[in-house]
Amino acid sequence: MGLVLGIDLGTQGAKALVVDAGAGQVAGRGAAPLAVDSPRPGAAEQDPDGWIDAVTHAAREALSCPGVDPASIAAIGISGQQHGCVALDAADRPVRPAKLWCDTECADEARAFGARIGRPVPAGFTAPKLVWMKSREPANFARVRRVLLPHDWVNLFLTGDAFT
User: Fold this and answer.
1) Residues paired with residue 16 on neighbouring β-strands, in sequence order
2) DSSP state, 73?
3) CATH T-level fold of 3-159
């Protein structure tokens, strides 16, 4: 199969790994750190464009390792943090920083949402974040046309298509 590029977008950084699929050996690796912004109590946010910068840096580092020919990459796999809310406008641009899985700022919205549906809903899930945005940032909420998870945002950047 040749070389495979794996990219993982974590909360604290992006990592890239080039694997020789035939030999089952790592051929290159790269990483780039990310910081979590906490502008308010309970808030945990990151700039989705910062993810792209980190993924790009990590991938370039992995692809520049000795013996790695970027033209030999046969496939790319993406993994990443879950439940981050990447709210996009009609041009597929973020309307605000992404609220992460560990954001608890919308705990009240999660409890109210859970009471409404008769099941507990964790504050880290996407739906409470959207309810929070609707009530606290109505101008941003009005611009939302699509919602993606963090790794889906990377897929959109790499391919031009929104998919998971």
Assistant:
1) 7, 30
2) E
3) Nucleotidyltransferase; domain 5 (3.30.420)
